[in-house]
């Protein structure tokens, strides 16, 4: 039976979600809310949604499923608003926030006793691009789509959500909201603090040591890439998960102090163990599998500085879906190859490695 789906927030996540739903459920009516007209117009023009509004409350009573793809504070405000609307009995309400405890707590406070179902969610996919114009039906492919059940989640809620979102081709997983926030504070939230802190430190340092800008190479680039993330979103994330993140900051201070003391004492064994343990721990992690916001499959090719060499490689990869191409130009000290090509899945990565290795004598490295 066809359903009516209401997506509030037609940014990259919300609009891409609409495309994924349309892929497997073309008969579903998708309604969209967005404050700015530009994204509403794009979503309508491109057929992502069927109807649009800038009045959130107007479409909510029509929906069988409501997805709030909004900043955390606005999500909580809309949950409070939904509690006072005449919604369909048994409507499913979900969200797409990067932290879960505050949102789950709000629903259990405002929606308790209402004839609605709720399940928190966090699609761990994203891009440096924003807005409905950047929507991609394959954005969530092989990425984790995390559900955080609550007291308002009935046994059939998750199955209905998984069916609705089947066209996203994501990997669904369930986890407690508080545990979700603990885990993401370590592997997502805190790294953004580190990246931005390193950028700020380097920018100040480069005022007196100008060559620091020029010598920044692969390792620095990789560690600071996420410092370009949208500041409003990250301010909201940190403030909605503050205790857990503060704990991670204190823990890291202790680890920095420990290695600092080893350097001060000239303790060669402790310093060696510091780097060796980190190397072994990273190699043991499932860090190369696409499973989170920033995961991708990277291939490095050490190519000569010759005319048309990049075009030759791209011609070999004709028909393969690429996520990104980066040329590591100036400082090769800590990079694996001058040409870095990123793929969405392991199959494309392996195919590319085979094609380049068989047809050239360039060094190919997978990381």
Automatic annotation (TrEMBL):
<dbReference type="InterPro" id="IPR008927">
    <property type="entry name" value="6-PGluconate_DH-like_C_sf"/>
</dbReference>
<dbReference type="InterPro" id="IPR003099">
    <property type="entry name" value="Prephen_DH"/>
</dbReference>
<dbReference type="GO" id="GO:0008977">
    <property type="term" value="F:prephenate dehydrogenase (NAD+) activity"/>
</dbReference>
<dbReference type="InterPro" id="IPR046825">
    <property type="entry name" value="PDH_C"/>
</dbReference>
<dbReference type="InterPro" id="IPR046826">
    <property type="entry name" value="PDH_N"/>
</dbReference>
<keyword id="KW-0520">NAD</keyword>
<dbReference type="GO" id="GO:0004665">
    <property type="term" value="F:prephenate dehydrogenase (NADP+) activity"/>
</dbReference>
<dbReference type="Pfam" id="PF20463">
    <property type="entry name" value="PDH_C"/>
</dbReference>
<keyword id="KW-0057">Aromatic amino acid biosynthesis</keyword>
<keyword id="KW-0827">Tyrosine biosynthesis</keyword>
<keyword id="KW-0560">Oxidoreductase</keyword>
<comment type="similarity">
    <text>Belongs to the prephenate/arogenate dehydrogenase family.</text>
</comment>
<protein>
    <recommendedName>
        <fullName>Prephenate dehydrogenase</fullName>
        <ecNumber>1.3.1.12</ecNumber>
    </recommendedName>
</protein>
<feature type="domain" description="Prephenate/arogenate dehydrogenase">
    <location>
        <begin position="3"/>
        <end position="293"/>
    </location>
</feature>
<keyword id="KW-0028">Amino-acid biosynthesis</keyword>
<comment type="pathway">
    <text>Amino-acid biosynthesis; L-tyrosine biosynthesis; (4-hydroxyphenyl)pyruvate from prephenate (NAD(+) route): step 1/1.</text>
</comment>
<dbReference type="GO" id="GO:0070403">
    <property type="term" value="F:NAD+ binding"/>
</dbReference>
<dbReference type="GO" id="GO:0006571">
    <property type="term" value="P:tyrosine biosynthetic process"/>
</dbReference>
<dbReference type="InterPro" id="IPR036291">
    <property type="entry name" value="NAD(P)-bd_dom_sf"/>
</dbReference>
<dbReference type="InterPro" id="IPR050812">
    <property type="entry name" value="Preph/Arog_dehydrog"/>
</dbReference>
<dbReference type="Pfam" id="PF02153">
    <property type="entry name" value="PDH_N"/>
</dbReference>
